[in-house]
Amino acid sequence: MQYVLTQYLLIGLGGALGSMGRFALASLIDTNVQKTGIVFPWGTILVNITGCFVIGFVATVTATEGRFIVSTLTRQFLMVGILGGYTTFSSFSYQTLQLAMDNEWQAAGANVLLSVVLCLLGVWLGTAAGNAFNQLR
User: Fold this and answer.
1) How far apart, in whole angstroms, are the C-alpha atoms of residue 41 and residue 29?
2) Are 7 and 73 in contact (CB under 8 A)?
3) What distance in Å separates the CA atoms of residue 97 and residue 75, rounded to the nearest whole number?
4) What is the model's pTM?
């Protein structure tokens, strides 16, 4: 029970740190880009790209055969906590890559297709529900 509590606390702390990092970097970039008159989510794209790079690097160097031996808690703090808070796109990308590396091409393709289509559908439905809710005033 103590281990599970520690696990949740470390992942939560990492998630908070990652979320603050995402907000800081994306805000900095988007604010400077918008000064040029361009309205495009470059901050989010950069966060997603850097998060994907970092999760790939951390997963590789801390794997069983990797250069650094770290505890399961440390890996979870970094990968699930910090990087999960920084960008969930990194987790999605890493899991899709793992499926592809395991020659699970159909599963990898399904993960990409389902994630993109269903998440866009979810955002659309959430927006529609929010608009309907707003009309109840």
Assistant:
1) 9
2) yes
3) 18
4) 0.77
